[in-house]
Amino acid sequence: MRGTLFLSNFIHKNPLCRVIRVEQCEKIRGVLLGGRVVIFDREKANALYFRGGFFGRFFTVPKPKTPDVKKELELSLFDAVYLAERGCLEVLNESGEAVSIDALKQLARRVYENFDDAYAVYKDLRGRGYVVKSGMKFGSTFAVYKLGPGIDHAPFLVHVLNYDSKLDPLEIIRAGRLSHSVKKKFILAYRDPIDGKIRYFVFKWFM
């Protein structure tokens, strides 16, 4: 099996998924618990997930296939920062005090390696209409959906690099083979330090 690395133009705006906008969302309250934000209002949690863009995951129902789920919703810090920046989420601590966006980002930097670059990629993908979830089980930063978990399979695995990172060829081969085995495209992404734009590279494997 051989692989070719080339600049990908696959990341166009996704016509199948709605981009969440400030004027479209109702502000929801979430509580910061460790490295996650939990929405306890089940009705609002349902609306945010099914009508807002598949943010977070429900307790005990990770990939619901029907919109009748009434459970608390757990948001990643990527989700929480993104929604808070758009005025869609107010985050409180366990004492009921407001948590600022800057404080959320500081926490995220302690929880996630290379958070700032990863969040820039997350925000770029969300802005193009894609649903972005953790890709940890695949050894990547994000798993990216066109429609959403429970509806379609994630066609892309995106691994975020720091611009100055050195590529390990063995790790690239391992990740490429894994993505090939699960029928997904393996993509490298980084934030260009000159213009701030996100660049995507994709491996294409062939026999």
Automatic annotation (TrEMBL):
Biological-process GO terms, alphabetical = tRNA splicing, via endonucleolytic cleavage and ligation
The catalytic activity of this protein is classed by the Enzyme Commission as 4.6.1.16
Q: Keyword Cell division: yes or no?
A: no
GO MF annotation: an example? nucleic acid binding
Q: Where is the tRNA intron endonuclease catalytic domain?
A: 115-200
Q: Which residues form the tRNA intron endonuclease N-terminal domain?
A: 29-104
Q: Which keywords does UniProt give here?
A: Lyase, tRNA processing
A single GO cellular-component term on record? cytoplasm
What role is this protein assigned? Endonuclease that removes tRNA introns. Cleaves pre-tRNA at the 5'- and 3'-splice sites to release the intron. The products are an intron and two tRNA half-molecules bearing 2',3' cyclic phosphate and 5'-OH termini. Recognizes a pseudosymmetric substrate in which 2 bulged loops of 3 bases are separated by a stem of 4 bp.
The protein here is known as tRNA-intron lyase
